[in-house]
Amino acid sequence: MKLETREKLLQSAKELFSKKGYYETKVSDIVEKSGVAQGTFYIYFKSKEEIFLELVKSLHQDLMKNLEKYIKIEKDCQSLIKDFVKEFLTEVYNNREIAEIFFSQLFGLNQEFKKLYLKKISDIQNLIFKVVNRYFSDEESQILSTLILGFVRQIFFNCLTNKNLSLDQMLSKAEKGIDIIFQGIYSEERKS
Question: Among positive and negative, which fits the CA dihedral 52, 22, 67, 112?
Answer without folding.
Answer: negative
